[in-house]
Amino acid sequence: MVRNAAICKVSERLALVPDRTCGSCNVCCVVSKIDEPALQKLPGCRCRNALSNGACAIYAARPETCRGFFCGWRLLSWVDERLRPDHAAVFIRLTKDEKLVLGPHQFALMVTVLSREGLNAPGLAETIIAAIGERIDTYLVVPGPPGYTSCRKWINAALGEAVKRKDAMALGKLLREQYAEAVTKLDQTRPVILTASA
Ligand code: SF4
Ligand code: SF4
């Protein structure tokens, strides 16, 4: 199996969801930042090693950052089957960043909407209902321009009532509102500075 890669040590302790493979997806090889001597890559910029069929040209020698990374779609069975990142324009990842993990879990969920169409991705509302229903800190992320930081919003409280009612339609409406608010902050994004020396 050819597998692609990128960032996050949370994945080391979780089993992969059976029957989900990366296939031709390599969204994480575009979205993620890599900043280590072996490879430096800005977020939003396609890795020079990412091939059009989803494979990695240096798979056997890929950098540490890429090893062991799987997105939320690969790791969490309750992330809807239809949300493969290259199909859904939604990229879900886990983070253990202690500034972001506020509740009872070991990780928070970062839901990056890659384009406005992603807001309507089938299964997105149900996945967010499942996450917030379990009190997983969930953030809506809007990417900045390539090479720039992103905007994020913690959405647990704002979507809480719709989650309680399991009302996917109401949740979708609230999510669009949260997205619109996050977009207004895109002018506050700043260039990402890579620090590892090559
Ligand atoms: S984003 Fe997920 S499905 Fe796509 S290549 Fe990365 S790990 Fe695989
Ligand atoms: S080195 Fe390979 S696995 Fe890592 S980001 Fe680039 S293409 Fe993806």
Describe the protein.
By secondary structure, this protein is an alpha+beta fold. It has one domain. The protein is built from six helices and six strands. It has helices at residues 28-31, 72-75, 85-88, 124-133, 160-165, 168-183, and strands at residues 34-36, 39-41, 90-95, 108-113, 138-142, 151-154. The strands form two sheets. The chain has a four-stranded mixed sheet with strand order 3-4-5-6. The chain has a two-stranded antiparallel sheet with strand order 1-2. The chain is globular, with a radius of gyration of 16 Å. The protein starts with 27 loop residues before the first helix and ends in a 15-residue tail after the last helix. Residues 4, 22, 25-28, 70-71, 73-74, 84-85, 91 line the site of one iron/sulfur cluster.
Question: What would the keywords be for this entry?
Answer:
single chain, 198 residues, alpha+beta, 4-stranded mixed beta sheet, two-stranded antiparallel ribbon, 14% strand
